[in-house]
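## Example record

The block below lists the input lines for one assembly entry, exactly as stored, with component labels intact.
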Amino acid sequence: EVQLVESGGGLVQPGGSLRLSCAASGFIFSTYEMNWVRQAPGKGLEWVSYSSTGGTTLYYADSVKGRFSISRDNAKNSLYLQMNSLRADDTAVYYCARRSGWPYYFDYWGQGILVTVSS
Amino acid sequence: DIQLTQSPSFLSASVGDRVTITCRASQGISSYLAWYQQKPGKAPKLLIYAASTLQSGVPSRFSGSGSGTEFTLTISSLQPEDFATYFCQQLNSYPYTFGQGTKLEIK
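Predicted structure tokens for the full assembly:
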């Protein structure tokens, strides 16, 4: 059974840092491209970041570029999101999501982890 | 970036109704469109991919159509468990944008 389990969320002050983890199981993690998606309270979905299978190609939404960093450890079946210089508008539930091969879709999502940025 | 506009944002309907949600892209995305259903406190669930392909395990009352810039999600006969929020997503190019969502409520 495919599972994605996020951890590392919580309350952080503006300007602070947090590192999210996503533990993958039930599939060959190293063969799938992975993404982070977030959802602010009561709002829609916002794609945040992408990692290629080997972690060499990375993309970011403009809203997080220069502040967030995505990485992965295929030996540990894990995806990470390092979040620095956090702002109040980064407050959201963060999901990791697996992208299928062509024709592309996000077929499995984690349960989500809440990040709250507040003083 | 490719913008997706869903309509309507809110939809009130009854069990047994046929409903259609539209998603328009700001530029052509071929058939690189997916639809998701989300219930409160839960992760999104994939319903449709490649604009019209039903994900395994999803009831056949759900269907998708369209290509280029205009797409639709249709639920042929609403069931109580279908009342949720629906999002479209384009996967033509990064950033993979989502529509703003359509909240389907019980009339």
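Chain B touches chain A at residues 31-32, 34, 36, 38, 42-46, 49-50, 53, 55, 87, 89, 91, 94-101 (CB under 8 Å). The beta strands of chain B are 4-7, 10-13, 19-25, 33-38, 45-49, 53-54, 62-67, 70-75, 85-90, 102-106.
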